[in-house]
Design goal:
disordered C terminus; alpha+beta; elongated; 4 domains; 18 helices
Length: 716
Amino acid sequence: FCAVNFCEASTCTVNISEGIMKSLTFERIIVGKYGNSKEKCEPDTVNGNVSIAIRMCSREGGTPTLDSPKILDCNENFDSLALQVQMESSNVPAIASNIQILTSMPEQLTTQNISAAASIAVQILKKPNVSENSKASVAVMATVSQLLDADETEFKHNSLVHVATSLTKTMEEFSLTSNISQPNVAVQSAPLKLSSSSILFSAQRATALGYYQPTKLEIQENVHELLDDLRTEVQILFNITSNSSSDNGRVGFVLYQNDKLFQSKIYQSGSSFSKQIVSGNINGGNTSSIEIAFSPKYNTTELQLHDHACVFWDYTVNDWSTAGCAKRRDQFLRCRCNHTTNFAVLMAFQIKYKYAKPLEYISYIGVGLSMAGLVITILFQIFTRKTRKSSVTWMLVSLCFSMLIFNIIFISGIENQNARNHSRDTRSYHQQYLPYDTASNTLLTSEIVDPPADSWCTAVAVLLHYFLLATFMWTALNSAQLYLLLLRAMKPLPVHFLMIMSVIGWGIPAVVVAITLGATYREGKALNYRQEEFCWLAALDHNQNFSVQKPMLWSFLLPVALILLFNIIIFIKISVSVIWKKNKDLTRNKKDSFMKKMIGTISIMVVLGITWMVGYLMLISHEETSVAFSYLFCILNTTQGLQICILYTFRSPIFKKKISKVFPVFRMPEVPLYLHAKTYYISKAQLQLAKHSQETFRSTQTFSDSISLSTFPNGS
């Protein structure tokens, strides 16, 4: 059963001011979100071209339901509302409603808008008995939730430090008397009784009847340990040592879904990090310690929680600190902090992409077999060069060598050694009852504004970048050689052909890598060039979005795409003009001819790296399709070295002959294959090309060997 998770487009007629009725139109709205009306304020008003109303899509009894629209006063803006809220006789609900509407499009909010809205929210929350005014309270909380959806770069200005601190402190005080939940922020309160020895706050997200429900908040008394329910997203346990002499005490909690209001000068948000912040406040009692447990949920099983750290917000310096906090890892991410006053605790946990085990096994097995195959191919090409006479070694050996070095570095060094060392304290996901560890409660280096240099990982990234680019470059050069040998056979090869190819094959990748390093790498800023966890090119920005400013796109994906396009064009030309060209005079067995052509086609496809195009198909958003192409990509490309060995070494008659001498059981009958060729004669008298009426055929060792990239006249 699949439930609807949105409210359909709607139209309604409302009274926007005294005696003025207006028809409002709303697009489809997601459950739990506000939608803006298509109708705007008049251009000559203060809020010209701003949506005149918003409407909430909520769920009642499992059915999406539209709330009544909230109407904006088109003559009110942030400045006028800031003046009004300071007056004792101000209409607080109206101000709260207007500020909610003005912040309903977070992506358009500027730093000044955020500052003004936060200041107004603070003043409303400080109003006497504001928690009893549900309309104003909900509107203010919705405003704060919308602010947390604004662009994070807008929060990094120093002008927001004071107002953000004021807002978070005010939210803590407000949490003692209110119970409100919004998409990005929630507050919960409860009385503190004389009999209470502990207070447990928990937030749980759940799905029911096929749809997503908002966070369920709950406070329990006298619970002596954290719950083991993995459905619980976050828990806080207050261990209370003494209460006030009456039942007038209160506890309050605030849960933030990101850390935008807690901007740090010491730490920065890494591209692979997710963060949640929970703050607590106790009035009328003391605590010996607090314990926090996080169990974040994701929509895909392809992610695993790799590491975490817990810190608290120190209001004396307006920054995060690990002092007094320890962490522990079992099925939850846990913290224990020895703080007895109000606090805000951050759980920063790194997300590491975890590939399915079969893909991991395929990768290791495939790369291992490829390395063995590449070594065999290189040795065979070198030691049988004189025997093969007309077959050169340099082009194919260069391709195999660059591919072999890349595979060796990839299998042994792509994971950052420092990142592994840092996470050794992280225990098995299922290992429980471990003590809290204070010493290991640190954030990863990518969280620090100026992380220490890791020259080893940077060097590995540079080598991987260079040898993979060189591998693709040699596929392009082999493609060019094929074109010259098979499609322009009547013209001699350029002078110093091998020298030119060597300079291009090894030199251009070096130039690209050098330019990339010069443009991105700075002392203490290595993560502009590479990732932290993996020693490979950086691709994502701090918001986990693919960035065109990172080197992955312009120094790798773009050059590789151009090379593959060139190789595909040559591959199609050779396939049509040479391999699959029809020959009416061919008398060989048709089935035998078809199989030889297929092997020849596959040989060219493999050595030109055409199979790497499957990688682009992995970008398809459909999950099942993407997974299927992931397996196909992994199988085809991790075994590319093995495929080259089979097609260009194991199938060679020379290799078969030598193997059959050592192991007679592998002796195989030779089956000659004839490749159609045409003989041309030039008439010197007429200086024109004349095609001879007869056609000749020449025997070759194997089809793949006759068109292999190692075929080169006169040797080398």
